[in-house]
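User: Predict structure, ligand adenosine-5'-triphosphate.
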Amino acid sequence: MSVATLEHVTRTFESVTALDDVTLTLGEGELIGMLGPNGAGKSTLLSLVAGLRKPTAGTVRLFGRDPRHAAARATLGTTPQETGLPPTLRVAEVVDFVAGHYPDPLPTAQLLEMFDLTPLARRQTGGLSGGQKRRLAVALAIVGRPRLVLLDEPTTGLDVDARRVLWDAVRAYHASGSTVVVTSHYLEEIEALAQRVVVIDEGHVLADDSLAAIVARVGARHVRVTLPEGTTAQLTSPEWAGATWAGSGAQVVTADSDALVRDLVRAGVEFHDLQVRGATLEEAFLAMTKPGAASGTDTPAGAPVPSLLEQR
Ligand SMILES: Nc1ncnc2c1ncn2[C@@H]1O[C@H](COP(=O)(O)OP(=O)(O)OP(=O)(O)O)[C@@H](O)[C@H]1O
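Assistant: Predicted complex:
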């Protein structure tokens, strides 16, 4: 069962193609992370699903209807990147006011508790911090028990604690059976929340798969090991030549960590603290979105890996 579909959807803004022939299905009960650099087309995609814009070409359906019809949006909850709140209303009053528009809203006290807003219930929204406003905005997106929630960068500007409160609330809401789509620049956020990851860049869907499958696309393994001085001469695998060193600790990126470990054992080197890990979502993301990268690449990511922000 799908809650929303895009079929061959293109959206242009004058000379800019924000989305280019995108076909995507948002399934019932999924928690989908939408990941992409600035300007990739994520917000445009959400605005089409929410009926705020119309596609230049292709078809968008929300609960089987054109999302620009109000009836299609009756069970949709959204949080735009920036939210205006009436500054003189108190937090609980705003929640009550919005809840009043729905037939079966979540109880205000329960919602405030979920988002750790209970201590702020009587505070005027004009006196909230940016992060508190953000939490309230996401709470308002779900007050009507929507079947689909679109959260565009919900944790921008939140500190670590507030981000975790929000993640817990989103997970709890998703567990009640709703579909949730979260866009984010934070790979950590997508890793923490999403079951399915859609990677978008330059208006194209580069990948759409489970988190584990996306990470597995990057075949690189990172091997860390502490070696007694001078022992690398006994090792024969060519990857050792490209190791990065911190004291006697070596880090090697390889497509075949088993061969590297066999090499250590065969040479009889007294190694310590051996660690082998697979790629992270950040490495998979960079491998997919770096200029010239082909979709579905399995080339090992280089080391050290720059952060997303450095890259972009
Ligand atoms: N109203 C508009 N007028 C002109 N160009 C637009 C408009 N909205 C979006 N664009 C362009 O479309 C492209 C996709 O933008 P979009 O906001 O969808 O990306 P995004 O992935 O959400 O980016 P960010 O992560 O920075 O929010 C960008 O090049 C953007 O400049």
